[in-house]
Amino acid sequence: MFDKRPTTINEQIEILKSRGLKIESESEASHYLSHISYYRLGEYWHSMQEDKERHIFKATSKFSDVIALYCFDRELRSLLFDVIEKLEISLRTKLIYHLSHEFDPWWFQNFEIFTDSRALVKTLSGLEEEISRSKDPILKNHFKKHKDDKRFPPAWKTLEQTSFGALSKLYGNLKNTIKSKNTIAEEYGTVNHTFLPSWLQSIAQIRNYCAHHSRLWNKNLPGAPKLLSNPPYAWVQDVPKQHEFLKLYVHLCLMKYLLNVVAPGNHFTKKLIHLFEKYPNVDPNALGMKLNWSEEDLWKTYSSNKSD
Predict the structure, then answer these.
(1) Partners of 62 in the beta sheet?
(2) What InterPro entries does the database record attribute to this sequence (predicted)?
(3) Do 174 and 44 fall within a single domain?
(4) Is-contact 103 114, C-beta < 8 A?
(5) Measured in whole angstroms, how far is the alpha carbon of residue 297 from the centre of its chain?
(6) 206-256, pLDDT tens digit by residue?
(7) What is the DSSP string of 5-18?
(8) Which of 8, 66, 107, 244 is the most exposed place for a label (fewest CB within 10 A)?
């Protein structure tokens, strides 16, 4: 039976000290522990323990390094959230534009063009829930004007309410014979429908981690995106191997590849380098970063009048 009792912040500090974690300022540690839970910070000091059964820290372990890792991870999530926002808006735009023209503005309700009907029902159910909660005046006005139309509002209104995850599921669920599925993949430089669905699923998953403030640093990520053997745009020479897909680096590469299409001249590389420079105690290997990653063509800064 689980019988642990809650501990006070002072007790938490004493426990950490007794296990060998150097705490330079107890008042500072008390401040952080009063705003960031012991359990959450534990995800960052876990790797600093030489004996994980007894939770004994390595001799060099410092509380300030734990906080640095936490802050690095928080800023990394913020950076990726900004990148993914651009990709999400672009994907939403392309789905609405191409499929509304190929079929009609209610294509997302057309079971004939999707592979998995049950998955589509789930997606539409989620959409209906989002719309029912929405305070968007455009939607309210639509329902007021079109009381007799029992369909969803057209794609350009409805899909503005949905998440990146739902958008990626809609795209992936399209039948491979649908022209727009290949068109969108071609416009992103991912050649055809074979590769892009797994990229979008990967990015949607990371977006969820960012949205829920979950750790990305030193995290093993599920999922295995399919990589292009000969991408039409700049890519990496040192291609991650399958076992390296657990780490964040390969997923960062996917984001950067798409971002170079969506926002040429973006500053993703510069911002990521700055983040590693700001937190020198962070080991890039924990994210699976390659030794000379920033020198790869994919990651080099592109000259453009556009910016991110």
Answers:
(1) 22
(2) Abi_system_AbiD/AbiF, Abi_system_AbiD/AbiF-like
(3) no
(4) no
(5) 23
(6) 999 999 999 999 999 987 899 998 999 999 999 999 888 999 999 999 999
(7) PP--HHHHHHHHHH
(8) 8
